[in-house]
Amino acid sequence: MTLKQTFLKFVLLILLLLIAASCTKRAVNNDPVTSNPEAGKPRNSIDVVKVNALPVEIKQTDSGDAVVQLNIEKGYHVNANPPTFPYLKATELELGQTPGVAVSFIVYPNPITKSFAFAEKPLAVYEGKTDIKVKLRTDKSAKPGTQNLSAKLRVQACDEQVCYAPGTLDVSIPLTIK
């Protein structure tokens, strides 16, 4: 192999490496979950969804409603429960177990139906401020006093063009048992 052939192979190798690096960088920058091409855009769902639980008071061996409030930033939505398609991530609230306190059922809000360019039919979503209601029931073993019920809220936020990585928010529901 001549010096000229070796030099040409070296130059070709360098060009191939530069092209490969450029393609890799371009692929990463087009990934909406890991990139942030527009300033202020979220990297995941918990950046645009805030959650708050209202205090609830229940008599021992009675029932009451806890309210978990979602505040979804303007310009974003989360999938309803149930979602329009099975592959979409539903908004879902899961309460931890607390002695003497049981969840009878969870009532998800009525969704709005909205069309998006990326979906073939309108989707059932939540936007803005929305409430999830939890029917709680206490029994004789429930200790009187104030405690916090732990819960997890799973959401996947989307804007008009893309959906972001799903996330889980910790929720603390203040409960007073009389």
Written overview of the protein:
It is a single chain. The chain has 178 residues and is an alpha+beta fold. It contains 1 helix and 12 strands. It has one helix spanning 3-29, and strands spanning 49-53, 56-58, 63-72, 77-79, 92-95, 101-107, 112-114, 123-126, 129-138, 145-155, 157-158, 167-177. A 4-stranded antiparallel β-sheet has the order 1-3-9-6, with no helix packed on it. A hairpin with an 8-residue loop joins strand 7 (112-114) and strand 8 (123-126). The longest helix is centred in the first third of the chain and has 27 residues, at 3-29. The termini are far apart. Mean pLDDT is 84; it is low at 23-37.
> How many strand units?
12
What percentage of amino acids are in beta strands? 35-45%
Radius of gyration: 25 Å
Gap from first CA to last CA: 91 Å
What does the average pLDDT come to? 84
- In spatial order, strands of the major sheet run 1-3-9-6
The succession of helices and strands, N to C, reads HEEEEEEEEEEEE
Give the overall shape.
elongated
Alpha-beta classification: alpha+beta
Question: How many helical stretches?
Answer: 1
Q: How can the largest sheet be summarized?
A: 4 strands, antiparallel
Uncertain runs are 23-37
Q: What's the helical proportion of residues?
A: 10-25%
Features:
4-stranded mixed β-sheet, 178 residues, 4-stranded antiparallel β-sheet, alpha+beta
Task: Provide the fold topology.
Elements lengths: L2 H27 L19 E5 L2 E3 L4 E10 L4 E3 L12 E4 L5 E7 L4 E3 L8 E4 L2 E10 L6 E11 L1 E2 L8 E11 L1
Parallel strand pairs: 2-12
Antiparallel strand pairs: 1-3, 3-9, 4-8, 4-11, 5-10, 6-9, 7-8, 10-12
